[in-house]
Every structure is written in structure tokens, then in C-alpha cells.
Specification:
By secondary structure, this protein is mainly β. It is built from no helices and eight strands. 0% of the residues lie in helices and 50% in strands.
Length: 116
């Protein structure tokens, strides 16, 4: 799955506020990995249920890469780690980013998170 990076992302840019639904295509079907909520430069989640959670900062680097400055649920627990998060669109109508996660056994999984 190849997506062009956001062409003009810089550290001052932010993702549009909203709820981003994250999915991975695995074994012929889309599996939900929860929702990440963005408000300003703060994110919460991913979650499966709308419950209040602690917010953490994030920032977008000049190359469109997102640096999460806190935990990222199952993407960063249980031996998993976030290898890369890349903005694919900053357009408020279809904002999105891809999260590349490395699993404990070394395999990589790509998840796409799209604004609802």
C-alpha cells in the first residue's frame, strides 16, 4: 500500500480536528484498530468506545511524519512499536495518515486512519 506523503507538511501544521478511524487490511478483510481523536495538537486513543482519556501532544515534522509524544494504545504496547506514521492528506474533507507498526516477532503491519 503506497501513499504519497503530504507535500507541504511542516512542524507548524496540524491534522484537522476530528475522529480518525484506523483499519488494517488483513486476511482479506478490514479490521478496526480503534479511533484516534485529534483536537489541536492533542490526541487521545486509539479507543473502541467513546470514553474520556488522557490527551498527549503530537507534532508533524517537515517531511510529513507524525511524532506521537505519548503512548498509542495497541500500536505501542504488548511488544508492538510504531515504526513510522506518515500524513497522507491534510485536507479536512479526507484527512488521513498511515501508521506502520512493528510487531514483537519483527513483522510490519500498515494501518490507515481516516477522518470520519
Amino acid at each position: 500500500m503506497m501513499c504519497a506523503p503530504a507535500s507541504s507538511a511542516n512542524a507548524a501544521e496540524r491534522l484537522p480536528d476530528g475522529v480518525y478511524h484506523c483499519e488494517v487490511y488483513l486476511l482479506g478483510q478490514f479490521l478496526s484498530l480503534g479511533d484516534i481523536t485529534i483536537k489541536g495538537d492533542i490526541y487521545t486513543g486509539p479507543t473502541y468506545f467513546p470514553m474520556p482519556q488522557q490527551g498527549y501532544n503530537y507534532q508533524i515534522e517537515a517531511n510529513g511524519e507524525i511524532s506521537w509524544l505519548g503512548p498509542l494504545g495497541g500500536f505501542s504496547s504488548g511488544g508492538n512499536s510504531v515504526s513510522l506514521t506518515q500524513v497522507t492528506s491534510l485536507d479536512p474533507a479526507d484527512a488521513s495518515f498511515d501508521i506502520i507498526m512493528r510487531q514483537p516477532h519483527g513483522a510490519f503491519t500498515a494501518s490507515t486512519c481516516t477522518i470520519r
